[in-house]
Fold this sequence. Notes:
Structural class: alpha+beta
CATH superfamily of the largest domain: PPM-type phosphatase domain
Amino acid sequence: MSSARGRFRRAPDRDGPGWLRGAPPPLWARVLPTALLAGVCAAELISPEPLDIGFLLGAIPPLAVLAHGPAATAVLGALVVVVLSVPVFNLNAPGTTDLLTVCFVSVLSVLLSFVRSRRDAQLVTERSVAEAAQRAVVPPLPERVGPVRCAGLYRAAQRGTLVGGDFFDVRAGPYGVRAVMGDVQGHGLSAVATVASLLGAFREAVLDQPDPEAVAARLDRRMAVDSADEPHAELFATAVLLDFSTDARQVRIVACGQSGPLLLRNGRAVELDVEPCTPLGLGLAGVAPPRVVSVPLRAGDRLFLASDGVTEARDADGAFYPLAERLPDLAHEDPAALAERVWADLVRYSPDVRDDVTMLVLAPRPRGGP
């Protein structure tokens, strides 16, 4: 994603994209066949005595398959045959059987290169479609929604995916700016359908529900409807809903099976006293109405929400990541920079993060406030 301030960012893969996971072949893989051919020729020309290294030429066509297309593989295979046949290189006059073997390997390598090239092209197309579909489920956050600046960071636990079991969104509606961050049962692609369903319900509820508890009830009903046809599905999700007033001087918070946000104020991280109610999908409306906590906001306040992939990360000794303690030292004026700094600090603290990691930073700018 762009590095523009305040925008949603997906946390980079610490291991890189990887050659074997779809990245272009590295330079050494493209240069190796030609370098090997040139090296064998140079060694034979320089040496006063014939060198028995002609067998190395047989490896050139298979090596070309790794990084070159059919045409380049065919050219390298033809050059190998020429070098074996020209007397000036003194390659011990290979017999007809040896030349036929090299020709067969070259032809087979061209065929394999053709198949690999076609599969690579198909993989690129399928990956592009998959990424477009996943970005449609969780699109980038705008830099600002009404009076609230936004920044999000997301890293899916399943390698190669952009969406997992966590979700968040910030939307403006007739009743103010509303935000949600949650975690559905399960991880990876199996949870994407539930994430898409919940986000769709949230975006609709923002437009027609007057308070955050009504939005929570709508999401709970959506989960119940989705699992109605599967009596043993046990589908549920945890979520935190935030409802900003139109002047951004107050936020109302509903926590459904998940702790509330941290409030960054005057260089301190304050844990808000938000009592979690029943998770979504377990009959929220029928058990008890959710508790709504109202928090007054000041200029410079920031709300930091993190998934359990952050708070439950452990170091080598099994100690949990102390988010509330470290957050003030990582704070920065730019919300996007804060999320990225926490991610970098989390990776240093717990290099083997296996859960979905989600962070959402909201920086309201109250109108007419102190």
